[in-house]
Design goal:
By secondary structure, this protein is of the alpha/beta class. The protein has twelve helices and five strands.
């Protein structure tokens, strides 16, 4: 301490932990309350509302801070490198059988689906099972390279194009961070259970031009959740498919990953889709 002021750069041990846990994290969390949702500051507040510091040693935390402080994120190339490293870590989590595997879809598959669906600037792109936001990230990369962007195009891509929902807290944080690192500073991603929304509550204003998703399958939903759907089943993939059909605008396009045993035959699929569109 010098002249009554604390030198936070010199903090170590318990003092550093106390500062991070009781001053820094609460300060960053407040961004969510004080700033518009269409800003990167708000998204930082969202992230720190979900996070807790899990580094128990203040000395280890100081070493981590010094390593990160030595990294550069100023140029586009440096930010791109960081985004690739971040996604690489998510992929490695999945390969190791950890949580990341629930949220990561192989990038070559995503690229192919986005290219086939071919979204356009001015259309809204939606993923109701965001995970690591791989589909939204790839759609952003596809759109920003699709033409010479005007200032208006950039604003549309930043604030009025990408929408999503995610139930799991870890995936929600991973998805927002992935979007920010790839250049979308204010993604419209909501922390909520998509399947808790009743199909009859979806209005025209809620619908989107493009749906891109890899929803979880093989799970089982409770009976009360099934009441939100016209075709009642515990299979999560079936419920998500109903949601996606309902939330897609007339004439819209969808690229959705489902398992090849999802429906036993084409007749059942046709009947199901017709019932949902009525």
């Amino acid at each position: 301490m010098e002249n009554g002021k604390i030198d936070y750069n010199a903090l170590t041990g318990d003092d550093l932990l106390d500062f991070v846990n009781n001053e820094l994290f609460p300060y960053l969390k407040k961004f969510k309350q004080d700033i518009s949702s269409n800003t990167i500051e708000y998204q930082i507040g969202e992230i720190f509302s979900e996070l807790k510091n899990k580094v128990a040693s203040g000395y280890s935390l100081r070493e981590i801070i010094e390593i990160i402080d030595g990294m550069r994120f100023r140029t586009h190339a440096e930010q791109l490198e960081m985004s690739h490293l971040y996604e690489g870590k998510i992929k490695n989590m999945g390969n190791a059988g950890r949580n990341g595997g629930e949220y990561y879809t192989p990038r070559p598959l995503i690229k192919t689906i986005v290219k086939v669906v071919a979204p356009k600037i001015g259309e809204t792109v939606y993923d109701g099972a965001v995970g690591s936001a791989g589909f939204l990230v790839e759609a952003f990369d596809y759109l920003k390279n699709s033409k010479q962007l005007s200032t208006k195009d950039v604003e549309i891509l930043q604030k009025k194009t990408f929408y999503g929902k995610e139930k799991a807290s870890l995936a929600y944080i991973i998805g927002i961070m992935n979007m920010i690192l790839h250049g979308v500073e204010a993604p419209n991603i909501i922390h909520t259970n998509t399947l808790a929304e009743n199909l009859s509550d979806i209005q025209e204003k809620d619908r989107h031009n493009v749906v891109l998703a890899n929803p979880p399958f093989g799970g089982k939903e409770r009976a009360e959740v099934q009441q939100n759907f016209s075709i009642k089943t515990g299979e999560t993939a079936s419920l998500f498919l109903q949601h996606f059909i309902k939330i897609l605008k007339a004439g819209g396009k969808a690229g959705i990953v489902i398992k090849n045993t999802f429906l036993s035959n084409a007749d059942n699929a046709t009947i199901a889709i017709r019932r949902l569109l009525l």
